[in-house]
Amino acid sequence: MSLIITDECINCDVCEPECPNGAISQGDEIYQIDPNKCTECVGHFDEPQCQQVCPVDCIPHDPDHQETKDQLMQKFLKLSAAAKA
Question: What distance in Å separates the CA atoms of residue 31 and residue 6, rounded to the nearest whole number?
Answer without folding.
Answer: 9
